[in-house]
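pinned: reference chain
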Amino acid sequence: MATLTSVTNTKTNMAAISTGAIDENDCNTPETFALLELYEECDVERQVCLRKIMTEFQEHLTERASHSLGYHLNLSCNYLMDLSPLLRFHINNVGDPFKESNFGLHSRKFEVEVLDWFAQLWEIEKDEYWGYVTNGGTEGNLQALLLGRELLPDGILYTSRESHYSIFKAARMYRMDCQIISTLTTGEIDCDDLRAKLILNKDKPAIINVNIGTTFKGAIDDLDLIIKTLEECGFSDNRFYIHCDAALYGLITPFLEQTPKFSFKKGIGSVSVSAHKLLGAPMPCGVHITRKEYVALLAQNVEYIATLDTTISGSRNGHTPIFIWYGLNIKGYKGIRLDVRKCLMNAQYLRDGLRNAGISTMLNEMSIVVVFERPLDDEFIKHWQLSCVGNMAHVVVMPHVTIKMLDDFLHDLVLKKNIWYKYGEVQPPCLANEIGVSNCNCLDHGKGLMGGN
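pinned: its structure tokens
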């Protein structure tokens, strides 16, 4: 199976093509991916070599996809190949999705249908919401916190230390006063710490980022408790704005009976989700929903495009709403629910396998993110594309992750673990503070696993 290195080493010798002194066999002796101007008479040879490069790169991607465990991506996107004829067109949803522009190659009808679907999922009436299809979770968060700042210009942003890095990026970009809140061992926001910081700043409004699934531990902040805390600290409805960062779990928690729902019925101001995560898409994309009354704060009429500018990005990818629309139609509620159940079961399977191998591990209730002790070999981490923080790593059990992939991963990890700790010179790290004593299998806490979750 080709790797990125082998693709690079077999790239076309562009200099040879440009002189005309090349045949198909020369495609095996290139060195870089440099772009060079070619002579017209070399077009045939060039096409042969470009096809070879693309074929080998696809082989590389196929291999990498079969070992992708550490990131919030659903790589099962083959069904979207049906939409490949649309790649002939430039589709641009510039401006507001609910306003026509003077540019005719757009997909606003698909975009609005997608927005209606998510508005219904998150319980806000069709005439009460506004939103758009974004380039991913970061853009949704930037849009949401900009709205929060415009609504409450002197507001303080409160967010947990395990929030996505885009929240802190937004705070820097918008020069917001940001209060970082401690978290529990699970990764959930510590409402006692939130309460203490709210009381210290009672004279200023609160802009709250609520994590519906933290990036690394998959923890879900308790929205009901956060709202109760705000009320008990004397913050009335017009003195706080809540954004729900639901990048991954925005398409998971609505399908779980045991988990408290987040909803616009609970007084939140906005939600953002990444569509390339649980649903799956060939490129990063997402959905941002907020209350219709808020968008006027950002709207500007732009004569050049004959529509309103209301989004973070000006020109917007018009293909992504179609990909999302198509995926939702193919799967439907039933298909998404089945994907969620499969991911939950496979996450529990991986957790049990890691524990049986004597590896410190944690899985939050109704979560698909399995946290465990960081492997000692960087090549192993790169091979399985694991995401790591400190002494921890995690696997995000997405719909493309099969039992066979998990078995191969566990087998590989156990073999390497026996090598890493063979002579006792290096010991497994203590993760009691990070994932709880009951989940830690270091020398001091190993017996505690019997009482783990």
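why pinned: The chain is about 35% helix and 15% strand. The CA atoms of residues 3 and 131 lie 40 Å apart.
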